[in-house]
Amino acid sequence: MAKGDHLYVEGLVDHHGIDCGDGTVIHYSASLKGGLGRIIRVSTSEFADRKPIRIKNYPKNYSRDEIVRGAKERLGEASYDPYHNNCEHFVYWCTTGKSECYQWDHVLTAASGTAAAGLGLVSTQVAAGGILGVVGVTVGLPVAVIGGGAVAAGAAIYHGLRMLGNWGDR
Prior knowledge:
The protein is of the alpha+beta class. It has five helices and five strands, in the order ββββαβαααα. It has two domains: 6-100, endopeptidase fold (from Nostoc punctiforme) (Alpha-Beta Complex), CATH 3.90.1720.10; 103-164, no CATH class. Helices cover 46% and strands 13% of the residues.
């Protein structure tokens, strides 16, 4: 690992940070102890939380010093938003100048396909039950139940494909 590297640890959702080159990492805190949703600087071991640290390799638009300087300028920021300003958005902003989050793109793409398939199955089952008179009662599922299941399924699909190597590091 080197100063300015884009670090991440894998989890249900990967966690990203910037290596400061001195045994510390700047990242959006995911714990109450660190100030939930605040950009903080912690030791590399605290960032790793007993998980292996990985490095994302892709073309950076800034030097290693500029990347760390940009991360330091945002220390203390508390504008976390899981969909629009999360730890991955922060790190890509520091390294490329563009606030991007690829893991949400993959999860939401997989979830939208799963939701569409799930909605088709629900409507087919309800229609068949009504036509055949087997159930005799129309049952409706709230969209939130279907959507929540779709996001969970999307996350599972994303991590499964990543493990198979279909979605590598950018």
